[in-house]
Design brief:
Mean pLDDT: 86
Shape: globular
Radius of gyration: 19 Å
Order of helices and strands: HHHEEEHEHEEEHEHEHEHHE
Helix content: 25-40%
Number of strands: 11
Low-confidence stretches: 1-41
Distance between the termini: 22 Å
Length: 304
């Protein structure tokens, strides 16, 4: 979740308006089971990508994907609470078709993803993760999207129109994302140093909780990926809105183990193939995240 700029489920109305959307998303996003998303048995479409695929993964026929669900339109569950969907899931399936393997998604709290990859519990992560120097010390990345942060407030909130209005306010954020660090730094520089009250940053491990905090009045604003906030606003029937435009653009990357450069290279070839044949653009258009499209993927190698 982006260094800071940022449906799958047609969320059922358990509460009125946007609160229903957010609560339903939370219930599915907190599911304790794994998200069994796979491409199904099929022949690989891309021989060049398959050449680079590690033998262990080719033999197993599965890439284990860590992702934080409850975060539409990127990754979330359908109404049944078990079927994964969203941009990240469809991207994984498209890559699996190129490589001839299943991409099996597992629901993991965001701050547990990189430790899980390091511990070999997962092969990769597709979870709206920004590429940063700090994270690049732990994993390789395959760049797949450009994104940025944004502010989500209630539809009737006229007190916040941009970052300059956050001093003294409570801002909700996802634990482990870079949005929280950016808010803390912004607060020191633009609030406290100017004699204004600091921003109170509240972190949540559940991806749906920051939006719920705004819905229930526990937070004034949710600062995270533009794509996620824009989706919530679109589905809220005016209960929520995005203000202040896109803040701090940064690239998203598919995280791959530091010792698994070969797998990163195989995914990169597959990703460039679906960019070239138009599959990538179709997926972005379906989930209305076209503004984050790239025209060429690349491997960002681990630095340590």
């Amino acid at each position: 979740m982006n260094k800071q700029l940022t449906g799958r489920v047609r969320l059922r109305a358990a509460l009125a308006g946007a609160v229903a959307v957010l609560v339903a998303t939370s219930l599915t996003g907190c599911a304790s089971h794994d998200a069994k998303g796979s491409t199904g048995s099929h022949a690989a479409k891309n021989a060049e990508a398959v050449k680079r695929l590690p033998k262990a993964i080719a033999d197993a026929g599965v890439v284990r994907v860590a992702s934080t669900f409850g975060y539409p339109p990127e990754q979330f569950y359908e109404e049944d609470g078990t079927t994964p969907t969203g941009f990240s899931v469809e991207l994984g399936h498209a890559l699996g078709e190129q490589l001839g393997v299943d991409f099996k998604f597992e629901n993991v709290s965001f701050d547990a993803i990189l430790p899980g990859i390091e511990a070999k519990r997962y092969d990769i992560a597709i979870s709206s993760m920004s590429i940063t120097p700090e994270r690049s010390q732990q994993v390789n990345f395959v760049k797949y999207m450009d994104a940025g942060g944004s502010l989500l407030v209630k539809g009737d909130n006229n007190d916040i129109s941009g970052m300059q209005d956050l001093c003294g306010k409570t801002a909700a954020n996802t634990t482990g994302s870079l949005h929280g660090a950016y808010l803390e730094e912004y607060s020191k520089t633009n609030c406290v140093a100017q004699g204004k009250p600091p921003i109170k940053v509240v972190n949540f491990s559940d991806a749906a909780a920051p939006n719920q905090a705004v819905a229930t009045g526990r937070a004034d604003v949710c600062y995270r990926d533009f794509t996620a906030n824009a989706y919530i606003a679109q589905k809220s029937n005016g209960q929520f809105k995005v203000v202040g435009g896109i803040v701090k653009t940064s690239p998203y990357g598919i995280a791959v183990g530091k010792d698994d450069l070969q797998l990163a290279e195989a995914i990169n070839v597959a990703l460039n193939a679906i960019i070239k044949d138009g599959t990538y653009d179709k997926i972005l258009s379906k989930w209305k995240v076209d503004e984050a499209a790239i025209t060429q993927s690349e491997v960002v190698k681990a630095t340590a």
